[in-house]
Amino acid sequence: MSRRTASCCCGQLSIEVQGEVLGTGVCHCLSCQQRTGSVFAALAAFASPYTVAGKATEFVRTGDQGAKFRFRFCPVCGSNVFHTEEGADPYVMVAIGAFADPGFPPPQDSVYECRRHAWVKLPDAVVRYEKDPV
To answer: Which member of 26, 62, 67, 97 has the greatest number of CB atoms within 10 A?
Structure first.
């Protein structure tokens, strides 16, 4: 079974996931833009189990549809590494950049296209949603 490790910038916080990527996507919502300091968040979904090493600070945000997302980031360097959605326990979403792997698979989905910066261009095969499709 394949394993991947994602970590924060300083290496204090990491997550090891097992198995294949369930899906990849980008989110252009304003909350993800503010959270990442970028114009979108790039995420990869993995099934449980996963192993976390180090200490994480948590921030819980309620999404537009009422879901609660628990973001984990390093209290030392501030890197956002992964998050979970309450009620969706068998899955974890990992920040693709935390893998530090330029060969990581491209996004399959793009949500909150209504907030996408006009100059951001994604591959044609990406499935696009104006807002959250859930």
So the answer is: 26
